[in-house]
Design brief:
With 767 residues, the chain is an alpha+beta fold. It contains 26 helices and 14 strands.
Length: 767
């Protein structure tokens, strides 16, 4: 279990170090409350803290200079010229506030005195309050910086790394000891195979999120919440509910929902305890799953009567449905061994940057913090590989479950079990449905055991067919590794604007190192985690709900939403736009809070899949995700945009390209089709011209002939179409035809006219 006295001491030492960085005139190592630790333990803790602080301080996202009080190092009076820098895109934000140092110190001292008196000697409550509430409380005590207290830097030289991030990271690294490791924990649940409607898919998603949160909470109790690096734990409602139950002052549990918690998380742990902690998380997941199944099993067992096979089938299916997995990756002092998990070009980039900055600073060894980003990427790759292995289920006899079509149904159609169940839960079980143990639990759990089962968000059933929208989770990985984007942040761009000139004047060797990409520092890792979590929890959820859809948390890193077909294209465009906005202001417990979005440097692949009616939506999402990854890896890069329609009997259409190349044209064509009542006639006429329109091996004069032919078809079919509009429709459609013929992911198919069918579907929900 966590030694909360030590954790509190680490947070307080971090605050003291941050205060000294902002005000070099301050002296002292930071006083701890009397009696908090014995003298020998305090001495050992200070040693571990200083080592962890130096590891992070020497990471590649900040210049490893001596302390501001020695060697005439460059100093920046941040409070005289306050500014914030985005750690991923290097977007700069200047602040108007001019706060004297005494006023800032007064606000911090007031907050610390207040919580010390209110915690009544309870170190756990005291430490958790500092971790979760200090930044908010400072905004309340002094509103001059307001929302930007959340971005208050740990060091005025590097305004992209917040004080709260560095304090938490140092505490986690110091708690992990001299041999830290990265623990990746995740959940796979085969319940999702039966999600043929938004309710079942939402139930599968909410159950997965709850089980993943149970594991994260177990680890937070063992090591403290700061140990979890990804996702940003403090932003979830379930975290506040946990803190409120622990008696942490001023934490309001307005919503204890685990909805949206990702299926896996990454934590920093001691190597000596990694396997023990991984096993504890897996055990907590299995126990929670068993507790969820038990009341449903008991209720159905009473209806099944003397059915001898019920209990055996229930146990077999319930155990096989769950895969609670974990992997351990050591954090090494160099890149040795990472080649087994990530690409060699990425490893080479880390090594080059670390060496150049080490040489420029004159440091002998960069410390583990310099390679933390590399090993975080390796740990996530290891976890994803383990997730893909999954758990193998055995052969299931018939009759099969009518929901998932995979497992054996519990009893026959005329059995007393289902006759009684349909009569009792007619709103949840259809007249012809036969369910397996797992699907029955998903349907009936919220009604039978309201306390232990999560509730999926209630959404109105969309009219018409559903679209599955998948946004690639590769954005987080790409934010942590080398990239080709010219917008990527460099060390020069994330320092305070006064800093580069001062650095070069002090050490000319820094000139080249300043222009290398920011890559592996803890600020980049935690900021990427915070940015993606904020975007998913606040921006995405709001946009998806506004489109009449529901956001899912299924598996892996992808974000998945179910939306009405007619809203899918517009939603994809809005999500791309908000993803690229680096700074965001949202409404939070302390009012408007300044938060981060990934910014323009983060790539965004997006795919839309429209499946046949009654297709398992989570399986459609998994196929859609694989299709998007294939498009990104083969020829479209991380800006890939793919739309696929699959119908019964194997029919299908596909449009693929980069968003900037096909998105505007597709959007324009959809808008044009929506504006005409006889769009079906236009589609039929254009399809008859398919051979001529898809013959792209033509010279420029013949291209104009194609335009004229299609324009004539448009004008002849759609009464009242003006010449200019007919020209626009013709050229837009031919642009999609030509692009899709050259970029098709399936080289054996002729996908030229697929853009027209897809545009018609996105406009009306049918083609």
């Amino acid at each position: 279990m966590t030694d909360w006295n030590e954790k509190l001491a680490l947070f307080l030492l971090g605050l003291s170090a941050t205060a000294r960085a902002h005000d070099p005139a301050r002296e002292g190592e930071g006083r701890l409350p009397a009696g908090l630790l014995e003298p020998e333990r305090e001495k050992d803790l200070r040693t571990r803290f200083e080592q962890a602080w130096s590891w992070i301080d020497a990471a590649c996202d900040r210049p490893p200079l001596p302390a501001p009080t020695a060697d005439k190092s460059p100093r920046v009076a941040w409070l005289d010229a306050p500014e914030l820098t985005h750690p991923l895109s290097a977007a700069r934000r200047s602040l108007d506030a001019r706060l004297p140092s005494e006023r800032v110190q007064g606000a911090i001292s007031s907050a610390l005195d207040e919580i010390a008196s209110r915690s009544a000697g309870d170190s756990k409550r005291h430490a958790l309050w500092l971790w979760r509430r200090l930044a908010e409380r400072l905004s309340e005590l002094d509103g001059s910086l307001g929302a930007d207290w959340f971005r208050y830097p740990a060091d005025p030289r590097a305004p992209h790394l917040t004080a709260w991030q560095q304090i938490a990271a140092t505490a986690a690294l110091a708690s992990a000891g001299s041999e830290p490791a990265l623990l990746c924990v995740g959940v796979e649940l085969s319940l999702e195979a039966g999600g043929r409607n938004p309710h079942d898919a939402g139930a599968a998603s909410s159950i997965r999120s709850l089980l993943a949160w149970v594991a994260a909470r177990t680890l937070a109790e063992q090591l403290g919440p700061d140990a979890i690096l990804m996702p940003a734990l403090s932003q979830f409602p379930c975290t506040d509910a946990w803190l409120s139950a622990a008696g942490v002052p001023d934490v309001r549990a307005t919503d204890g929902s685990t909805w949206g918690f990702p299926a896996s998380f990454l934590a920093l742990v001691p190597s000596s305890r990694a396997e023990e902690l991984g096993a504890a998380c897996a055990t907590a997941i299995r126990e929670a799953w068993g507790a969820m199944l038990a009341p449903v099993r008991d209720a159905l067992a009473g209806l099944a009567g003397s059915d001898a096979g019920f209990a055996a089938a229930w146990t077999r299916q319930g155990d096989a449905a769950l895969d609670a997995w974990w992997t351990v990756t050591p954090v090494e002092e160099d890149s040795t061994g990472a080649g087994a998990l990530i690409a060699s070009r990425d490893i080479g980039a880390y090594d080059k940057i670390v060496k150049q900055r080490r040489d420029a600073s004159g440091a002998e060894a960069p410390g583990r913090g310099a390679y933390l980003g590399l090993w975080c990427e390796a740990a996530r790759a290891s976890g994803e590989a383990r997730r893909m292995i999954g758990a193998c289920s055995g052969h299931e006899p018939r009759p099969r479950c009518t929901c998932c079509g995979d497992r054996e149904a519990l009893g026959s159609g005329g059995s007393p079990l289902w006759n009684a169940a349909r009569a009792k839960w007619s709103d949840r079980i259809g007249p012809d449905e036969l369910l397996c143990a797992v699907c029955a639990a998903g349907r009936l759990g919220p009604a039978i055991a309201t306390a232990s089962w999560p509730k999926a968000p209630q959404t109105a059933a969309p009219s018409g067919p559903l679209a599955v929208l998948v946004v690639s989770g590769d954005g987080l990985s790409a934010a942590l590794r080398p990239g080709d984007s010219k917008e990527a942040a460099t060390l020069r761009s994330v320092l305070h604007s006064e800093m580069p000139a001062l650095l070069q004047k002090l050490r000319s060797r820094w000139r080249d190192g300043l222009d290398l990409p920011v890559l592996s520092g803890v600020g980049r890792i935690l900021s990427a985690s915070e940015a993606v979590t904020t975007w998913a929890l606040h921006t995405v959820r709001h946009e998806v709900a506004a489109a009449g859809g529901v956001e899912l948390s299924l598996s892996g890193n992808d974000l998945v939403a179910l939306v009405p077909v007619s809203k899918a294209l517009g939603l994809a465009a809005r999500l791309r736009q908000t993803w690229r906005d680096p700074f965001a202001t949202i409404q939070g417990p302390a009012g408007h809070e300044s938060r981060l979005h990934p910014g323009p440097v983060a790539p965004l692949g997006c795919a839309i899949s429209i499946a046949p009616d009654n297709a398992p939506l989570p399986l459609v999402a998994a196929r859609c995700s694989r299709l998007l990854q294939r498009a990104m890896q083969e020829n479209l890069g991380r800006e890939a945009f793919v739309v696929e329609i699959r119908r019964d009997h194997g029919r299908g259409w596909m449009l693929a390209g980069k968003w900037d190349e096909i998105g505007p044209g597709l959007d324009a064509l959809v808008a044009q089709l929506r504006s005409h009542t006889r769009r079906d006639a236009l589609i039929a006429e254009a399809l008859q011209l398919g051979v001529a329109l898809t013959d792209t091996d033509l010279d420029k004069p013949k291209q104009e002939v194609r335009v004229a032919v299609l324009r004539a078809a448009v004008s002849g079919v759609l009464a009242g179409v003006e010449t200019d509009e007919a020209e626009r429709i013709a050229r837009t459609l031919l642009g999609l035809v030509d692009h899709n013929a050259s970029q098709a992911l399936d080289p054996d198919g002729n996908h030229g006219l697929d853009g027209l069918r897809i545009a018609a579907f996105l406009a009306e929900g049918n083609a």
